[in-house]
Amino acid sequence: MTTTAQPAASALAAGVAAVELDRVRTRFGDVTAVDGASLRIRPGEVVALLGPDGAGKTSTIDMVLGLSAPTTGTVRVHGMPHPAGTSSANARSRLDLPTPASPPTGTTPPRPPRPRHRLPQHRRLPLQQQPHHPRPFGGFGASLRCPRRRARPYPPRSWRPRMSVDEVGSGPQDRGVRQEEIWDAEAAESYDTPGTGAFAAEVVGPMVDRLAELAGGGRALEFAIGTGRVAVPLAERGVPVAGIELSAPMIARLRTKVDEATIPVVAGDMAAAVAPGEYTLVYLVYNTIANLLTQAEQVACFHNAARHLTPGGRFVIELWVPDLRRLPPGQRAIVFSSEPGYLGVDTYDVVAQQVVSHHFRFGEDRRARLFRTPHRYIWPAELDLMARLAGFELESRHADWTGAEFTAESGSHVSVYRLPHADTIAASMST
Question: By the 8 A CB rule, do 179 and 246 touch?
Answer without folding.
Answer: yes
